[in-house]
Amino acid sequence: MKPPRMSSVVERRLLVNYRIDPEIAASQMPPTMRPQLVNGWAVAGICLIRLGQFRPSALPRWVGLRTENAAHRIAVEWDGPHGQSTGVYIARRDSGSLINVLAGGRLFPGEHNAAKFDVRETAQDLHVAYRTRDETISVSVDVRTTERFQGSELFADLAQASDFFRQGAAGFSATRGGHRLDGLELRTDAWQVEPVDIQSVRSTIFDDPDRFPPGSAALDCALLMRQVPVTWRPLQPLHAVAGGNHP
């Protein structure tokens, strides 16, 4: 059965971005992909997203769910039948929604792990933290809205950063079988991001010296989206291994 197209409102999408040593990034993605480089760096990060009215597009808004979700991702490129493509490789997805955990990878693309979220926000300040139910992954992020985009070594200005992430709308997620990458594309006619200052970030993934040896990963910038209507289009799965077959 073909997965349905989904619709939702991105009530909040916080992108916390790191500069990564390209060789380290390449070691953490399928061999069918390679890091997309910006100023000699790979770009990785955490997407912390709250969706409202999440539902199959054919259904009315009032039946939609409100969910807190997270994704650890790396910007990638790969060679397809029509040439080079760009997007993000999603090493793992976590969700506070039991429906996402049960249905992800079955009714719609993207397998999710169960997590508990703690969110506190005002017009200027945002705190998002979560811990997976198996207690293997935890993240805590505090940011504050600002007028200026500054301090990034990846992007010269907000427009350049916005364009980069908009072009990486196709996301391919790791699956438990290891041979297939589930694909999902974010689409919107109302794309808009705003800069935020990072107050603090803790991540058991990016702070892990076994995954990222000292000097191989550095916080670069963070971007915030709020109240953006989107659709989610299923994509044809990709091979995770060269010459592999989809299960």
Please sum up the structure shown.
The chain has helices at residues 22-26, 98-103, 158-167; strands at 6-20, 34-35, 37-38, 41-56, 65-80, 83-95, 113-121, 125-132, 138-145, 170-174, 180-187, 194-203, 217-225, 228-239.
Secondary structure layout plus pairing:
Elements: E1 6-20, H1 22-26, E2 34-35, E3 37-38, E4 41-56, E5 65-80, E6 83-95, H2 98-103, E7 113-121, E8 125-132, E9 138-145, H3 158-167, E10 170-174, E11 180-187, E12 194-203, E13 217-225, E14 228-239
Structure notes:
- A hairpin with a 5-residue loop joins strand 10 and strand 11.
- Strands 1, 2, 3, 4, 5, 6, 7, 8, 9, 10, 11, 12, 13 and 14 form a 14-stranded mixed sheet that branches.
- Helix content is 9%, strand content 54%.
- The protein has one domain (6-239): Acetoacetate decarboxylase-like, CATH 2.40.400.10.
- The chain has helices spanning 22-26, 98-103, 158-167, and strands at 6-20, 34-35, 37-38, 41-56, 65-80, 83-95, 113-121, 125-132, 138-145, 170-174, 180-187, 194-203, 217-225, 228-239.
- The protein contains three helices and 14 strands.
List its traits.
247 residues, mainly beta, 3 helices, 9% helix, 14-stranded mixed β-sheet, globular, Acetoacetate decarboxylase-like
Q: Rg, please?
A: 17 Å
Helix content: under 10%
The CATH topology: Acetoacetate decarboxylase-like
Mind telling me the CATH superfamily name? Acetoacetate decarboxylase-like
- Principal-axes geometry comes out as globular
Flag low-confidence runs.
Answer: none
Count of discrete domains: 1
Largest sheet: 14 strands, mixed
- CATH class value: Mainly Beta
- Terminal CA distance: 15 Å
Strand content: over 45%
Total strand count, please?
14
Secondary structural class: mainly beta
Task: Give the averaged pLDDT, no decimals.
Answer: 93
Count every helix, treating DSSP H or I runs of 4 or more residues as helices.
Answer: 3
Looking at the overall shape, the CATH architecture is Beta Barrel
What's the quaternary structure here?
A: single chain
Element order: H for helix, E for strand? EHEEEEEHEEEHEEEEE
